[in-house]
Amino acid sequence: MTAMQPLEGASVWSGRDLAKSSAWLRDLTSGELAALDAALAQVRARGLAWHEITAEAFQIPALRPLLTEIAEALESGLGLFKLRGLPVGRYDETALRQIYFGLGFNLGHPVYQNRRGELMRAIRDEGGDLGQRYGQVAPAGRDNPFLSSYARTLSNGVLRFHTDRTDVVSLLCVSQARRGGVSKICSSPAVYNEMLHRQPDLAEALVAPIPRSRLGEESDDVASVYNLPVFGLRAGRFTSHFSLTYIEAAQLVPGVPRLSEKQHEAIALLLTLAEELAFEMTMEPGDMQFLNSHVTYHGRTPFEDDKASGRDRLLLRLWLAMPNSRALPPDHAVLWRNVEAGAPRGGISQTAAR
Asked: Collapsing DSSP states into helix, strand and coil, what is residue 285?
C-alpha cells in the first residue's frame, strides 16, 4: 500500500447512514420467484444434485437485471446487499440448496469453503467437541483449547468482526434462533478512514505484513503460517483481510515473530471502530445476504436455539469468486492465489480426500 489517504466512494459508510437507506435491500418479485421455480423444475427433471448445478443448467434470464444490480452494488456500491422473500417453507432443504446454488452460480462462481471440498456450508450450532472436529490447539498453561475460526463458526457463540477468504460471502436464512444471532456488518474502508484520522501510526502498522495461521478450514497444523497485511490498495481499490483468530493462532507457534505493542493497539482500535461504525441486520427466513469481503467486516452476536418450537438457527453459506472483482496487491497472492481483476480466486485449496 502506497500513500495513505482517506478513501472515498459508496463503500465508505456508517451504520447510522445505512439505517436511513434502503438502497441495500430488495424483495423478490412474483415473476422472479416463478423463474426460480421453473429453473428448479428443470434441474429436478434432469436429476441434478445441487452441487452438479451450473449457470447453464439453472437458467434464470428473468433475474439477470437483479443479479447485475447485486454484482454492481457489491463491487462499486455499498459492498452489501440483502434480498428478501424466498418462501423457504415451501421447499425441503434439498430444493433450497438447488435454488440457492443455482442463483449463486448465476451471480459468481462458488469456491471451496474448506479443504474437504464443501461448496455450501450449513451454519448452525453443532455443539459437542467442535475443536476436535474442526481444529484446535492446546497451548501449555491454558485450561481450555484454542478453537479454530472454523470451529467457532459452528458454535452458538459470538463471532468477532472478520472477513472470509472469498470475494463475496452469502448467507441464506432457512430458520432463525429463538434469541440472538444478529448479523453485524461494517465498512472496512470507513474503519480505515477513521483510524487514519485518529491515529495514523496505527493504520500504518496494519499496512505491514502480520503472521496468520491456516489452522481450521485449510490445515490441522497451526504452524502453517503466512504473512499478510490487514490493509491493501491497488490501482486505487481498497481491500482488507482480517480475522483475529488466525492472527492469535499464529502467535501460538514457536518462532513466529511476536506482535509489537503498536500492532496490538492497532488491532484493538480496529475492533473498537468496527463496533462504533457497525450496522446490525436481523435475518429472517427467506433472506439472502451478500457481502463483499474486500470492503466489509462481519460478525455475529451469540444465539440461543429452541428446537422444540422450531426456532433452530440454520443458514446456508456460499463463497463466490466474482467476475467483476477488483485487482488485489501482489503480496495478497499468498492467500488469494490469483490477484488479477475478475480472476477465479479465493476459497480453500483442496488438500484432503473428499
From this structure: coil
Quick check: is 222 in a domain?
no
**266 domain-assigned:** yes
pLDDT value at residue 275: 98
Asked if 325 contacts 107 with a C-beta cutoff of 8 angstroms, the reply is no
**Which cell numbers in the block locate residue 227?**
504473512
The number of folded domains in the chain is 1
The CATH number that applies at residue 111 is: 3.60.130.10
Using CA atoms, how far apart are residues 330 and 318, in angstroms rounded to an integer?
Answer: 26
Q: Is residue 188 part of a domain?
A: yes
**Distance in angstroms (rounded) separating the CA atoms of residues 67 and 74:** 11
pLDDT tens-digit readout, 153-205: 999 999 999 999 999 999 999 999 999 999 999 999 999 999 999 999 999 99
Share of the chain above pLDDT 90, in %: 90
Residue 98 placed within a domain = yes
Cell of 284: 429472517
Q: How far apart are CA 14 and CA 208, in angstroms?
A: 26
Assess contact for 130 and 155: CB atoms under 8 A. yes
Locate 297 and state its grid cell.
467486516
Q: Under 8 Å CB-to-CB from 65, ≥6 apart: which residues?
A: none
Domain of residue 67, residue span = 15-123+157-211+236-242+256-336
Tell me phi and psi for residue 289, to 5 degrees.
Answer: -110, 135
